[in-house]
Amino acid sequence: MSQPMSQRLVHLAVAQMGPVQRSHARADAVERLVAMLQEAARRGAQWVVFPELALTTFFPRWDLQDQAEIDAFYETEMPNAATAPLFAAARERKIGFYLGYAELVNGRHFNTSILVGQDGNIIGKYRKIHIPGHASSQTGGAPIQHLEKKYFEVGDLGFPVWQTRDAKIGMCICNDRRWPETWRSMGLQGIEIGMVGYNTPSAFVQWDEPIHLRMHHHLLSLQAAAYQNACWIAASGKAGVEEGSHMIGGSCIVAPTGEVMVKTQGEGDEVISFECDLSIGDRYRANIFNFAAHRRTEHYGLLVERTGAGAPLGTTPE
């Protein structure tokens, strides 16, 4: 009879944010982040996950024209004067964090997240790869747009996974979570904890998808990814009505079993946490999702040969 694996516990926290309005200064957003980081630390969390674009409002909802006005939403260095208190708090409380923000580097614009260790130093950086929406205004200049393709380049850092002192940690951002390639790329590197920030509207002006499906698909994507890659996922979003656009909450922590272990209840600033047993993922990786034993890469050529759907390859047997 095989012996049960010993527990490997990592205490994760997720810090959901309520709206960040355009009038809010970065210092206001950072003050809120610090308060939630401190709450996570009081609970004993070792890591806390903040949302995508946590320092500003979600500006891709507007078709802005002035480049100086646009660039003001981006960070040119990290940490900087505005975010220094967050790094200092992490160092003081010995808690690591994930932070999403808009990055401007060498004239290039990215939707970025960083992983910061318990010593307050940056461990890794990720730049969003699956950019949704459009590059130009749609439907005659509607007041609420989804113009991420206008404001962000496709990320150029791939899907790395970092070996930290607690676990193998990977990052992605918002729409990335919906794509299985995101998670399988990290799964093949042995990811144990995935961190993701998002800003997801409850309605989409260019598509009449029923609103109730926004939360359903959000959770479905996370649960499938956690199960199929035998990892824990901590997902943090902005929520509530921001500049007239409602965003879903649903920040959560998902186990390798695909179960949602804890989830936010409201649409404001809210901290949730869970003590995650990484050995649960070990068991799945040693059995049903033992990639080395069961994957058949010789049959997966279409995954990289095609971007869009094409003609079927098979024929009907006689």
Q: What distinguishing features does this structure have?
A:
single chain, 318 residues, alpha/beta, Nitrilase/N-carbamoyl-D-aminoacid amidohydrolase, six-stranded mixed β-sheet, 9 helices, 14 strands
Task: Describe the fold and architecture.
The chain is of the alpha/beta class and 318 residues long. It has one domain: Nitrilase/N-carbamoyl-D-aminoacid amidohydrolase. The chain has nine helices and 14 strands. The protein has helices spanning 26-42, 67-71, 84-93, 148-151, 180-187, 212-228, 279-286, 291-294, 302-305; strands spanning 9-16, 47-49, 96-105, 108-116, 122-127, 161-163, 168-173, 193-198, 232-237, 240-242, 245-247, 252-254, 260-263, 270-277. The strands form three sheets. A six-stranded mixed β-sheet has the order 5-4-3-2-1-14. β8 (193-198), α6 (212-228) and β9 (232-237) form a beta-alpha-beta unit. α1 packs parallel to α3. The longest helix has 17 residues, at 26-42.
Task: Give the helices and strands, then pairings.
Elements: E1 9-16, H1 26-42, E2 47-49, H2 67-71, H3 84-93, E3 96-105, E4 108-116, E5 122-127, H4 148-151, E6 161-163, E7 168-173, H5 180-187, E8 193-198, H6 212-228, E9 232-237, E10 240-242, E11 245-247, E12 252-254, E13 260-263, E14 270-277, H7 279-286, H8 291-294, H9 302-305
Parallel strand pairs: 1-2, 2-3, 7-8, 8-9
Antiparallel strand pairs: 1-14, 3-4, 4-5, 6-7, 9-12, 10-11, 12-13
